[in-house]
């Protein structure tokens, strides 16, 4: 079965939940008019990225009026959106929710929080502690957030949990500007997206933001990659863009028949060797 999906590559307003929600709802209205089945927004689309001490102010519980508005909008099409989630015990997470049929159906809390170089997420966020896929009309879906995808174990876990559509949300800054050629950050993301798509025979939707915050430039380049590892649609750098593509569950099936990597995976060996490594590290 074929599905129309979209990515809203845009520049959120830092710290302004209401203004960003208006932008999200405008994109949702457009997606509905154009007949999309799924719309994906970038990491922290509801708030902007360099929040620092603004985190508690912009955080949303899953029963907040803001979250309920997004859930209500999902009666028209499925939505994936990044936001700051506040838990019942007052922890704050860099999170992403999957909304469909008027409900929050899944939440992923970012597992790997970068705190090196220009990044300082561990100062303001709690880390997630699980990776799960979940059923949707588009197949089993896994959601990961930016740094999560720089640790291949996360995509591996999602693949072993049956992932057919991996959705990666990012606020990736432009880094490593060369004298000639492409950005280092974009080259790395292209490699990751195509590798995860091809070797796990799944679609990859990569939603990155654009714009500037606190002296940081975000490059965009959102894309949809097929289970063969080839791009289906690619957004330009630095520009707000509404990217559209068509995905097919039949294509996932075809690629898994041709390249049965997942069928042949020896999960027992992986688990046994990881337990061995863990024990050896504990003894050292």
Task: Report what the structure shows.
With 284 residues, the protein is an alpha/beta fold. It has one domain (2-283): Carbon-nitrogen hydrolase (Nitrilase/N-carbamoyl-D-aminoacid amidohydrolase, 4-Layer Sandwich), CATH 3.60.110.10. The chain is built from seven helices and 14 strands. The protein has helices at residues 17-33, 55-58, 65-73, 152-160, 184-199, 249-258, 267-283; strands spanning 2-9, 38-40, 78-86, 92-100, 103-109, 133-136, 139-145, 165-170, 203-208, 210-213, 216-219, 223-225, 231-234, 241-248. The strands form three sheets. It has a six-stranded mixed beta sheet with strand order 5-4-3-2-1-14. The longest helix has 17 residues, at 17-33. The protein is globular. The model has no long low-confidence stretch (mean pLDDT 96).
What would you say about this model in short?
With 284 residues, this protein is of the alpha/beta class. Helices cover 29% and strands 29% of the residues. The strands form three sheets. Strands 5-4-3-2-1-14 form a six-stranded mixed β-sheet. The protein has a six-stranded mixed β-sheet with strand order 6-7-8-9-12-13, with helices on one face.
């Amino acid at each position: 079965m074929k599905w129309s999906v979209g990515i809203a590559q845009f520049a959120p307003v830092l710290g302004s939940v209401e203004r960003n929600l208006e932008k999200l709802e405008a994109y949702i209205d457009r997606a509905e008019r154009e007949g999309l089945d799924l719309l994906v927004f970038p990491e922290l689309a509801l708030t902007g990225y360099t929040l620092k001490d603004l985190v508690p102010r912009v955080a949303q519980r899953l029963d907040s009026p803001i979250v309920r508005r997004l859930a209500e909008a999902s009666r028209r099409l499925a939505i994936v959106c990044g936001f700051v989630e506040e838990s019942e015990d007052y922890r704050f997470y860099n999170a992403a929710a999957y909304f469909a049929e008027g409900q929050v159906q899944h939440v992923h809390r970012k597992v790997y929080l970068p705190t090196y170089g220009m990044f300082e997420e561990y100062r303001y966020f709690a880390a997630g502690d699980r990776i799960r896929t979940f059923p949707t009309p588009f197949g089993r879906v896994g959601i990961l957030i930016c740094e999560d995808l720089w640790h291949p174990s996360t995509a591996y876990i999602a693949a072993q949990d049956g992932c057919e559509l991996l959705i990666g949300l990012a606020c990736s800054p432009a880094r490593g500007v060369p004298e000639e050629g492409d950005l280092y950050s974009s080259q790395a993301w292209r490699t990751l997206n195509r590798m995860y798509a091809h070797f796990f025979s799944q679609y990859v939707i990569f939603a990155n933001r654009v714009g500037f915050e606190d002296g940081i430039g975000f490059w965009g380049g959102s894309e949809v990659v097929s289970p063969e590892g080839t791009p289906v649609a690619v957004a330009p750098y630095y520009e707000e863009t509404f990217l559209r593509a068509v995905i097919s569950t039949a294509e996932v099936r075809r690629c898994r028949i041709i390249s049965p990597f997942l069928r042949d995976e020896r999960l027992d060996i992986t688990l046994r060797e990881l337990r061995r490594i863990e024990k050896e590290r504990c003894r050292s």
